[in-house]
Amino acid sequence: MDKVLSTIMLIVAAVVCVTLVINAVYPAITSSSGALGSASALMSERMRSQVKIIHATGELDQSGAWQDVNSNGYFEIFFWVKNIGSETVVDIGSSDIFLQSEDTVWAWIPHASYAEASLPQWDYAIENGTSWRTATTIKIDISHDTPLPPGEYRIKMLIPNGVSDDYYFSM
Q1: Rounded CA separation 148/146 (Å)
Q2: What is the percent of the chain with per-residue pLDDT over 90, rounded to a whole number?
Q3: pTM for this model (two decimals)
């Protein structure tokens, strides 16, 4: 009789331990599989996203001097970016633009919706379409209140999912 009671108590204890282990491990397994699925989806999106800066220039006249050629009161840098990936870039205004000259560190340029009235700031126009999908080019316009000094520059665009491209140019 003692052996039967001992065996029943050991079986009950084993069932309780297995239940505790399952309750502790199962949520961790399901959440990690969800995290792996999310990471995989984000990585897949990044692999399908690609942008390429194809040209950059300043608002210069024929002799290469800064001039407000469009008479809007600003001195501007223009650059064109093509979506060469298979993913449509949805929130273009949340992209980051950085500008660096030979003498300075990277400077973040805010989008016009964040910058309010302060300069420099940037805005964009879709050149050949209504959304920034594959093979569509956008024109970025960085507005400054004073002309930039002549020299070598590097511009970098980082779209919201972390994909970026940079481009060297001189003015």
Answers
A1: 6
A2: 40
A3: 0.72
